[in-house]
């Protein structure tokens, strides 16, 4: 997301003003939301949660439904003075964490694997989750939303994230997730390196996006268990009481926030 996108969104957000929705990240009230996502057939065919073309974005700060869901969880569950690692940070969510007077993390570190042609705020460090430059057991919380479906070497990424997480810490993972099919992984071992050799069109047809290398499915708990993680799926209804707040925040009932801990603790 470019800073200019947020600037222009705020300039024209008056067009959306109303009372049906209220963003919990910026407080803006609107009668309608902005569009997000794609309508590729595979997303409907495999009943993919957290994907598809839908109205979900705040017209003022451009937060998505998943940004608002994560913020709802953090505000209600995160104690003060925590070391946080945020991978591929979403600008509205990152700004809320950085500016929060209640969370006040000791250390808030944002990383992304920087790619030419993309915009990154100055406070985002270049980083690769398959080779993290942090000591063992350093972070209390890791946030990595819609990241793991991009990483060919899932085993190495989950091992590294587990390494830098404190034994008592936890992670928030969100991914596009098929509720009706098992995980479809397009990666393979070639010359001692795990790669995805599929074309962009093949990725769209199989995973619903040209830069995804897998589509997680209804076996996700088993996959994470194999990699040494215990996950506890949380739906919006687990975090809020009453349909009115769900509708006001425009949270989708089927959305899944994955809370993860090292399996050795469970």
Count of helical stretches? 9
Label the CATH architecture: 3-Layer(aba) Sandwich
The strand line-up of the biggest sheet is: 8-7-6-9-10-17-16
Helix content: 25-40%
Q: Which tags fit this structure?
A:
266 residues, alpha/beta, Rossmann fold, 7-stranded mixed beta sheet, two-stranded antiparallel ribbon, 17 strands
Question: What's the helix and strand layout?
Answer:
Layout: H1 3-12, E1 17-22, E2 29-30, E3 34-36, H2 41-45, E4 48-49, E5 54-57, H3 65-77, E6 83-87, H4 91-99, E7 107-112, E8 124-126, E9 139-145, H5 154-164, E10 165-174, E11 177-178, E12 184-185, E13 188-190, E14 193-195, H6 200-207, E15 214-215, H7 220-226, E16 229-234, H8 236-239, H9 243-248, E17 257-262
Parallel strand pairs: 6-7, 6-9, 7-8, 9-10
Antiparallel strand pairs: 1-2, 3-5, 4-11, 10-17, 12-15, 13-14, 16-17
Helix pairs in contact: 3-4
Model description:
The N and C termini lie far apart (37 Å). The strands form six sheets. Strands 8-7-6-9-10-17-16 form a seven-stranded mixed sheet, sandwiched between helices. It has a two-stranded antiparallel sheet with strand order 1-2. The protein has a two-stranded antiparallel sheet with strand order 3-5. It has a single domain (64-265), classed as 3-Layer(aba) Sandwich (Rossmann fold). The model has no long low-confidence stretch (mean pLDDT 91). The chain has 266 residues and is an alpha/beta fold. The chain is globular. The protein has nine helices and 17 strands.
């Amino acid at each position: 997301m470019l800073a200019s996108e947020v600037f222009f969104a705020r300039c024209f957000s008056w067009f959306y003003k109303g009372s049906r929705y209220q963003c919990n990240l910026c407080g803006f009230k609107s009668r309608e939301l902005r569009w997000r996502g794609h309508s590729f057939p595979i997303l409907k065919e495999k009943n993919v949660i957290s994907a598809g073309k839908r109205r979900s974005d705040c017209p003022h700060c451009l937060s998505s439904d998943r940004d608002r869901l994560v913020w709802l969880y953090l505000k209600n569950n995160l104690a003060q003075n925590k070391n946080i690692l945020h991978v591929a940070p979403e600008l509205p969510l990152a700004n809320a964490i950085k500016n929060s007077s209640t969370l006040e993390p000791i250390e808030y570190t944002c990383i992304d694997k920087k790619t030419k042609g993309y915009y990154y705020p100055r406070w985002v460090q270049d980083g690769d989750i398959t080779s993290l430059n942090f000591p063992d057991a350093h972070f209390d919380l890791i946030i990595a939303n819609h990241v793991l479906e991009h990483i060919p070497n899932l085993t190495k990424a989950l091992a590294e994230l587990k390494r830098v997480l404190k034994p008592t810490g936890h992670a928030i993972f969100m991914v596009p997730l098929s509720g009706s099919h098992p995980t479809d992984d397009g990666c393979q071992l070639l010359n001692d390196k795990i790669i995805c050799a599929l074309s962009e069109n093949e990725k769209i047809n199989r995973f619903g996006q040209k830069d995804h290398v897998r589509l997680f499915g209804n076996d996700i708990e088993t996959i994470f268990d194999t990699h040494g993680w215990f996950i506890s799926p949380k739906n919006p209804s687990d975090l809020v009481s009453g349909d009115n707040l769900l509708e006001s925040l425009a949270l989708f009932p089927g959305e899944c926030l994955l809370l993860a801990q090292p399996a050795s603790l469970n």
